[in-house]
Write a structure and sequence with these properties.
This protein is of the alpha/beta class and about 475 residues long. The chain has two domains: about 60 residues, no CATH class; about 325 residues, Aldolase class I (TIM Barrel). About 50% of the residues lie in helices and about 10% in strands. It has 19 helices and eleven strands. An eight-stranded parallel β-barrel has the order 4-5-6-7-8-9-10-11, surrounded by six helices. Strands 1-2 form a two-stranded antiparallel sheet. Strand 9, helix 12 and strand 10 form a beta-alpha-beta unit. Helix 2 runs antiparallel to helix 3 and helix 2 runs antiparallel to helix 7.
Length: about 475
Amino acid sequence: MFLHINEFFNAVSGVLDFTAKGVRRVVAPRVLRGDLIDRLTYNAVFNPDEDIKCHCRLAIRSAADRLGIYPASIHEFYMQKGKGHFNHFTVPAINIRGLTYDVARTVFDIINEHKIGPLIFEIARSEINYSQQWPSEYSVVVTAAAIKTGYTGPVFLQGDHFQVKAALYEDDPDMEIEAIKLLIRDSLGSGFYNIDIDTSTLVDLTKETIDEQQRRNYELCAMFTDYIRRLEPNNISVSVGGEIGEVGGKNSTLEELTAFMEGFLLSLKKYDPYAVGLSKISIQTGTTHGGIPMPDGSIAEVKLDFATLESLSRLARQRFGMAGAVQHGASTLPDEMFHHFPQSGTAEIHLATAFQNIILDHPQFPAELKAEMYDHICDKHGAERKEGQTFEQFLYKTRKKIFGPFKKRLWDLPDHVRTAIQDDLRQKFVFIFQKLNVVNTRDSLRDTITPPLTSFSLDREKATLR
């Protein structure tokens, strides 16, 4: 830990040509990729001194820019998918809840080795809260991992499930809308140029017509899309996704997608007749986030409706010019299912819980630390245990909430433990990426990805610090 700002300047001296506006030149890239980037990242996350923390974040972001690493929107690439190109593979979107630096390094190593092109690092509104990773922190850690591994090129950062909470919206709609807008502002300021708006929680299936059922969903999605368009960088079209069916609910239909999109496009035109719309649409096909735990803690078998996924993806492309449908809650699916996603034309697939499970259930994970974590869950979240839920079911659904309170303890795990976890994560990642056909897709990004016009300063870092 840097104890004084002078320690930061001494550490970067001779490695980074550093000014108040960031790094002008990376003098010694190999030295930066050694222990220095590890130390900068650690301080960017954990240093209690906000001035030191902001200096480290500025150094990481601006050094990455000088090395050819930049936050990017996948929108133009998805527009190509909407025209029928690149539909032989499905883009993975990975949520990282803990050990973020180690997990991201593992992914970038695989990207480099297997020449993977489009791959998204994302975090949901709920995950931001319980993992204690605000967008400004998440983006700088992922960017640091790219530096560490020698990766160059676009980094796709995504706000996943920027979700309107139905109960809070009913109590005070203005406050809930402002909460999403604040999240959007800070995300864009941190390089999140891909945002999934989830107002599907407001779908009302008691209404008589499908248009009425989807009305609040598409009207608010259009409002947030317009808000994003007004704030996005001048040379970037942020990739915005909508959602028509809440994950874990009933399966989506062609009629629902049509009603949502027609209503959305009409609503968006009221704000701006020339506004850029959505690049993809999330649907429900039979999955739940994290899977459904059985009383013994095992995961229930899932019957995923690939026919629905294929038909809605086709409609999204052919009628509305989007990349296709997005599949959520997929990481815990059986291995034999993954090859079906590219075959069905799925645009994007969201993956999270399986990687969390590899970390927490790893044989090298310290038993005493896990026991302490579970005690914390019982103490702080015991009231969330549902009637009839076994202890194993309760732990499985709730243990994700330990990543924030134990973030530093996880980061400080012994090297051999973290390396063993990375090795197992690597096997899982490689398997999924191969099944999704994203190996050797790096050339697909050519001519579709635009680097943003980015400025750096300490004031900007402080503005997004949470």
